[in-house]
Amino acid sequence: AQTVTQSQPEMSVQEAETVTLSCTYDTSESDYYLFWYKQPPSRQMILVIRQEAYKQQNATENRFSVNFQKAAKSFSLKISDSQLGDAAMYFCAYRVQGAQKLVFGQGTRLTINP
Amino acid sequence: AAGVIQSPRHLIKEKRETATLKCYPIPRHDTVYWYQQGPGQDPQFLISFYEKMQSDKGSIPDRFSAQQFSDYHSELNMSSLELGDSALYFCASSLGPGLPGNTIYFGEGSWLTVV
Asked: Which ranges of chain B have pLDDT less than 70?
């Protein structure tokens, strides 16, 4: 069974600094997708960034970037120049190509200190 | 851009009652998913539909049922409600799983409180 593990229940960072959220996953598949979703206090699930497993280049979206290590089954999220609006619960998620469901990690609550 | 629309946004029901949640996917999306998120938990997959057929099933109780209609909207029916069913229910949509642009987009969720 595929599992996703986020080992950091909570993280905090000073505004304007950089923070990295960790995620590891377990799978025997070779073709899959990885995602980071953000869930602010409004509880809406917002897609932050996605990575296709067949791509070696790490995905980047403005201040958000990932460090995808396929052999190590690691998928960390780096947030640069942290802003107060980045405060949220962050979920790492995994999806096998052609499969329906997302498998989520337990989430990391990120606090931004002004 | 149009997003996934869920209704109602908030719902309060008594134990043993029935509730129905509705979901309207992003236009042209043919796949709909339902997730349940309890307090302090990660979202748990319930069920999904592709082209109006059930395509995958997760931890959905037998008291729950769902379907996708010809216009691709979906409804989640929950009967004999229990206190433990109180949760945030997400609907999400995507293009079919075989297509490259198959990122899953979530609605804002429907809050169900069972009292």
From this structure: 1, 97-101
Cα–Cα distance measured from residue B88 to residue A93, given in angstroms and rounded to the nearest whole number: 18
Question: Cβ atoms within 10 A of the Cβ of A17, count?
Answer: 12
Cα distance between residue A47 and residue A44, in whole Å: 10
Chain A: closest CA distance from residue B103 (Å): 8
Q: What is the pLDDT of residue A1?
A: 66
User: Is B98 near chain A, with CB under 8 Å?
Assistant: yes
Structure confidence by residue, pLDDT tens digits, B71-86: 999 999 999 999 999 9
What one-character DSSP code corresponds to residue B23? E
Say whether B85 sits in a helix, a strand or coil: helix
- Tell whether the model's pLDDT for residue A26 goes beyond 70: yes
Nearest 5°: phi and psi at B65?
-145, 160
Q: Which two tokens stand for residue B3?
A: 């997003």
Q: What is the mean pLDDT of residues A92-107?
A: 86
A97 and B97 within 8 Å at the Cβ level: the answer is yes
How many whole angstroms separate alpha carbon B88 and alpha carbon A35?
A: 21
Report the 3 state secondary structure along chain A: CCEEECCCCEEEEECCCCEEECCEEECCCCCEEEEEEEECCCCCCEEEEEEECCCCCCCEECCEEEEEECCCCEEEEEECCCCHHHCEEEEEEEEECCCCCCEECCCEEEEEEC
